[in-house]
Amino acid sequence: xxxxxNHIKSMLGLNEKLFxxxxxxxxxxxxxxxxxxxxxxxxxxxxxxxxxxxxQFYSRYFNIVSLDDYFAGRLSNDRFNICxxxxxxxxxxxxxxxxxxxxxxxxxxxxITAIRQAGYDILWNDHLALLxxxxxxxxxxxxxxxxxxxxxxxxxxxxxxxxxxxxxxxxFPKKAEFMRQTSxxxxxxxxxxxxxxxxxxxxxxxxxxxxxxxxxxxxxxxYHNDLSxxxxxxxxxxxxxxxxxxxxxxxxxxxxxxFPYGAYTREVVAAADETAGFRQLLAVDFLYPEDKDHPxxxxxMTVNPYISIxxxxxxxxxxxxxx
Length: 323
Prior knowledge:
Blueprint: H1 3-11, H2 16-21, E1 25-30, E2 32-34, E3 45-47, H3 48-61, E4 63-64, H4 67-72, E5 81-87, H5 91-103, E6 108-112, H6 124-134, E7 138-141, E8 144-148, E9 154-156, H7 163-168, H8 172-181, H9 183-193, H10 203-210, E10 215-219, H11 232-250, E11 256-258, H12 266-274, E12 280-282, E13 297-298, E14 301-302, H13 309-318
Parallel strand pairs: 1-5, 1-14, 2-3, 4-5, 5-6, 6-10, 11-12, 12-13
Antiparallel strand pairs: 7-8, 8-9
């Protein structure tokens, strides 16, 4: 079935039984909330209006549970269960999402980095995304020239290196140096896009968010590095230090981590549990067959900003976007 046909069926009320009779559970993950143009920078944002409609739909058809309840198995047998999470720690979560979850009295978990403690108000990948959208068509870094392709990605002149992948694979100092060298270009791009698309929460906003009875705070790494690409000692240090940072701000124990980019290894999982002390580990897709039986790991479905609310809710119930 196509998205268009499923949308029409839902509009006519023909999918009412699907939603009311659905059973099971799903964790969904949002990232940014903006006022308009959600796909301006990437495919990870939805508008405030869309998010509100999602919350209304969840409230009408589903049982909405906190992250703690989800992991504890405190779920309804009579309705489909939904757990809402946010990744990346955008200030728009505080500005736009928090008022709505409080209005509808719906729990949500927010996974935040420690990038503010490192002295930055933006994640490295958002810095790059802004440049790829609003920056120059060509730039240089470390004696390599990169040209923006038709997909708004910086590709090396030889065509064999994507700048994002090159930076993703390294530790934060290289990302920081790239940000330093392109700071003026990024300043213009920031102003062009507007704060909703890149600004991180301040420590004061994190503390205020944590004070809400509907919000749970979790870790999302220290620098938003891919932990699976770091030496295990570095990945472990990031998890431990990000947890300490958030616990100091919130005054509460932080027991959940969402792996940046959904990336992890068996060793990272073991360190998250045994060394960093996390009891709730959030992936996107399970990366190993045995993960479905792991007591601490749960998978999540990323919200798609390109489809209608009915198609989104159908995908959540079915667990995939292939209609």
